[in-house]
Amino acid sequence: MATVKDLRGDQPTWCPGCGHFSIMAGIQKAIVQLGYEPHEFAIVSGIGCSGKVSEYVRTNGFHTIHGRSVPIAQGVKMGNQKLKVIASGGDGDGYGIGLGHFVHASRRNIDMSYIVMDNNIYGLTKGQTSPRSEHGFVTKTTKEGNKEYPVDPVSTSLVNGATFVAQAFAGDIKQMVDIIERAIEHKGFSHVNIYSPCVTFNKINTYDFYKERLTKIDEPFENRDEALAKVRELDGLVTGVLYEEKRSDFQDKLGIDFDTQSCANGEMDVDLFHRVEKQFQ
Length: 281
Description:
By secondary structure, the chain is α/β, with parallel strands linked by helices. It contains eleven helices and ten strands.
C-alpha cells in the first residue's frame, strides 16, 4: 500500500507558509487514505505557483500551458477511464483564460476532480490582480484599486451543472482532506475551490482573515438554488460540500468503451474508431 512518502515528488519551491503546501499534502493524504497507488492517478496542472503540483506529487503527471489543465485532464480521462484524474490550478490560471474550459467541463460532467488553489492574486509573476481579486484590491497593476469585480467560481460551477461543488481552506487540513477524498470518489465532475493564502504578495486575504470570516457547512444543500443562496448570503466565505448530485457522467452517456490502451498492443481497433467517429458527425 502506498504511503505519503511514495507520493513525494520534486522539492517544492513555494514561499514558506504558502497555502499550497497544505493542499499538496491534502491531495497526497487523500490518495493514501483512500487506498490508491500512485500509478492509478493522473494530476494535470496549468501555469502559476500551483502549476508545479503535478511535479511535486509523484503520480502520472502533465504540466500544461496556461488555463489548459481542464481540457487536457478531460482527454486523459476519456483515454483511460481507469485512472483517477485531478486537474489542478490557481485562480489566475483557472478563472482567467481557463474559465471557458471550466464552464464546459461543469456542464459536461466528465468523471474527474478540479482542485483550484485560490489565493486571490497572481503570485508567480510577483503580485498582480487576478480574476479573484476583490473590487478595490490594490496591487502593482491596480495602484488605485481594482476596477473590476471578482469571478465567483463556486456559483459558476453550481449554475453550470457540476455534480459536486465544494470549498475548503488550506488552514483547515482535516476538513480539506475529507472534501478532497469525497471529490475523488464522486462519479462526475467535482469542483473544489480552496482558499490558499499567498503570504508574500497578498496581505489582505491572510490565514487570520479566513479564520475570522469563514462559515462551515456540515451537509450539502438539497438543491442548487439553496446552495447558491447561501454562497451569496455569505459573500463566498463558506466551506464544506455545498452540493452533490448523482447523475450519469459524460462517458456513460456516450456509451462507448474508450479502450485506447489496446493500441499499444497492435493496430487500432477500426470498429472502435468508427463508433467514436459517429458520435461526433
